[in-house]
Predict the 3D structure of the following.
Amino acid sequence: MTDNWQTSQKILVILAHPDDPEFFCGATLARWARAGHEIHYFLLTCGDKGGNGDVTPAELCHSRHAEQQAAAAVIGVESVRLLDLEDGYLLPTLDLRREVVRAIRQEKPDILVTCDPTNLFPSTTYGINHPDHRYAGQVILDAVFPAAGNPLFFPELLRDEGLEAHTPRQVWVALTAQPNVTLDVTETWEVKIRALKEHKSQIGDPIEFEKRIRGWHTAESTDEDPIYEEKFRVVRFD
Ligand SMILES: [Zn+2]
């Protein structure tokens, strides 16, 4: 299984926060944009708690919209939409599942990208995966199957909005502990770094930040000759 698609694919990235696409799989998205695929972002919150109280959530929400647009432009993304739900309080409700089904039926992507809801400890040594990431992954996978492709789910979307059932051909699940696809993304790692640096409110000192991201090369490669990878659980419906 690879991303060696023969025709231009429509790719919809649905994640919780501004900066999640670039952190989780930015080098892959940049590689896909450069290969001529069409990428759209749909982010569920505006990341209004991604700070320490220096600025208000409303101000942070405003600046994170702009930062996400700038980062997406570096990656080569065609459109960015934010649902502006409150950061940190995301839940996999039926209402949110309907919103995601609506987005999938509106955009009709070939490929959908999200993150793994089961990954509670993404690092062997550090931290807990943010609940928004886990609940976003959960509600998005639940929207893909069995809802988006079955007209009996949320029939009001067809009745009132004319949105027909649609299942993406493949779902690429990032930030997973159970990958079945590993991409060598060394060629677009610089693009990922440039895009991430647009998230100015999130990265602290940009020089230290860049050093940290450059350090994410494979254990077998070196600082002088680094190899970078991004891993996914790919689920096929085609
Ligand atoms: Zn996040």
